Amino acid sequence: MNGRRRTLFILGLLVLAIAAPIGQGNYIIYVLTSWLVFAIAAMGLNLTLGYAGQISLAQASFMAIGAYVTSLLTLAGWHWILTLPLALIACFVVGLLLGYPALRVKGHFLAFVTLAFNTLVFLVLRNEDWLTGGSYGLVGMPRPDFGLFSTMKQLHFYYFTLGVTVLAALAMWGIVRSPWGRAFKALRENPIRAESLGVDTRRITLLAFAIGSAFGGLAGTLIAPLVQFIEPGSFGLAHSLRILLMVVVGGSGYFFGPFLGAAVVILLPEVLRFTEGYYLIIYSALVIVMLVFVPSGLIGVWGRLREKFWPRHQVRADMKEGAGLK
Amino acid sequence: MSQFLQVLLSGLATGSIYALVAIGFTLVWQAAQTVNFAQGEFVMLPAFFVLAGMSLFGLPFWTALLFGLAVSVVVLGLMFKKLVAEPILPHGGITLIIATMALGILLKESVKEFYSAEAQPFPSIFPNDPINVFGAVLSMQDILNLVLSLAIVVALTLFLNRTRTGRCMQATAQNPAVAEILGVNVKRMILYAFLINAALAALASFLITPVYLAKFSNGETLGLIAFIAAIVGGFNQIRGALVGGLLIGVLDNLTAAYVTAEYRAALPLVLLIGIILVRPQGIMGTSEGRAV
Q1: Is A249 on the interface with B (CB under 8 A)?
Q2: How many CB atoms within 10 Å of residue A307?
Q3: End-to-end CA distance of chain B
Q4: Number of helices and strands (H, E) in chain B?
Q5: What is the pLDDT of residue A308?
Q6: Could you tell me which of A84, A308, A310, A51 has the C-alpha nearest to residue A217?
Q7: CA B289 and chain centroid, separation
Q8: Summary mean pLDDT of chain A
Q9: What value does the CA radius of gyration of chain B take, rounded to a whole number of Å?
């Protein structure tokens, strides 16, 4: 796809995202909003997993940090926009502190450290009830009000979230295209060569993880006013796994993979509601089957089909990069 | 003093079961460079095979244990290797790790939906009589669990060091290419590692389930503790996994008894980060160097 067609494609998606909630009930709009929120979290994890090649199992805890920082401060009377930088910085710093020891060693230590970290965050949120409300959680966070544009209504909040998502996606686009982003990719494709070319692999990986964590925090600051109720149970390990699977199902290392993956993970339960308790069984079995046959995710399926039916078309450049996930 | 001894010994008993899980984990890691995130579920499931054997086929308990062991080796060893690990490994280690996470969800949810979401009582292999050791009151079960797990570890070590097959497995773990050149059937050795892992998980399951009851969510904590035990002890050593398992079992009990019960679950994390900072190769491990 050349540059012009890609621009058209992205504009088309945006128009679709703007038009989608019009005339829908509150519940549908709520589902669409949470799709955007989880897409942001998945986008961050995609940077860690898809570009820097490290597994993080703590994305839900970074959402928790973001959500609790925002909730506590907005409940104390702060404006949402002021809590945002604090939440992002908190997640970035925690990401650095957590990633530093884990990335000193080769292998998948970050996966274990983040796995344990998720448990720890859950424990702290549940046990320190003087601050976090314990297992009862926090309720009644106000939604941000920007004078002329109040987000109290579901539809308005959707457009607000869409705006934030677009900004986050632009920021991610910038990061991926920057020298850092290229270093992330170099690292994933061939770490030894990247290191021999002077890329400080450890520092770059750490940075990718911390930035990815900050995106998780951003998703957290949005989920708090969306649901207006947070409790430790919504940020457990199962949710981190869910976000990880979003990235993988969508196609890790593809820019639009997280959006597709979040759509599948958030919307599929609505479609498969009739399967009741069997939903997770069907879903996890499908993920394993997908990893056996199309390890590059659903976007990879599309790429494959394109190549099969229109072999002369040039494959999108960012697709080619994503296919080499190791 | 007698309370300390009691806490220590029951910690060792739990720790020895963690060690079994951690050793299986280490074996699969060495053989196939696979981090199995479903390891906890691999320990949860065999107990349900036994329960199913007793309720569906009316097997007596001891026969049901053998049945559970056999089914575990086939399902969690052979089928896991052939249907999940083998086809996905060429796509890369991370892809396989994520597949094992999905597998963990699959096993857990299947047990929840198809068997029961309630905790099931599981008959104890050993009598649960209290006995008195130097003033400490211990259950017979704890002592025999400890003895049996240590015996399994010793038997496994002898197998790996003294038999031809065991040495071939070690050669495969150290350098598959050279092992293949020297005539070792590398594929078969990797399969053995998966089978032994499944058997160890099943044995750990039979020992630990009478204590915790059989529940679909048992694997969550067990898996994490086993990983951490393996890392803390040293990833490339069987005795490392043993030391790691025992250490975590004891420290966990001591923390719960003397420091804080609320943050008991945080202890493995603290230990993990401490070890990574001070001695990344693990307590017993030998450094492999950092190849990037």
Answers
A1: no
A2: 13
A3: 48
A4: 12, 2
A5: 75
A6: A84
A7: 26
A8: 86
A9: 19
Bridge partners (DSSP) of residue A145 are A150
DSSP bridge partners of B139: B130
Q: How far is CA B51 from the centre of its chain?
A: 20
Token readout for B7 is: 């806490």
CB of B71 closer than 8 Å to CB of B206: no
Per-residue pLDDT, A318: 53
CB contacts, 8 Å: B265 with chain A: 119-120, 123
Contact B179, B168 (CB under 8 A): yes
- pLDDT confidence bin for A303, thresholds 50/70/90: confident
Q: Strands, E, within A133-197: which ranges?
A: 138-139, 145-146, 149-150
Residue (of B1, B4, B2) closest to B258 by Cα position:
B4
Low-confidence ranges of chain B (pLDDT < 70): 287-292
Would you state the pLDDT for residue B290? Answer: 41
Chain A nearest-CA residue for B105: A284
Length of chain A: 326
| Number of helical H runs and strand E runs in chain A | 15, 4
pLDDT tens profile A120-169:
899 999 998 888 888 888 998 888 888 778 888 888 999 999 999 999 99
Which has more pLDDT, A306 or A258? A258
Please give the C-alpha separations between residue A184 and each of A52, A177, A213, A320, in angstroms, as whole numbers. Answer: 5, 10, 15, 16
B29, B109, B279: best to mutate for the A interface, most A CBs within 10 A: B109
Cα–Cα distances in angstroms (integers) from residue B289 to residues A198, A233, B163, in the given order: 19, 40, 30
Is B235 near chain A, with CB under 8 Å? Answer: yes
Helix (H/G/I), strand (E/B), else coil: A56? coil
ipTM score assigned to the predicted complex: 0.85
Q: How far apart are CA B292 and CA B289, in angstroms?
A: 9
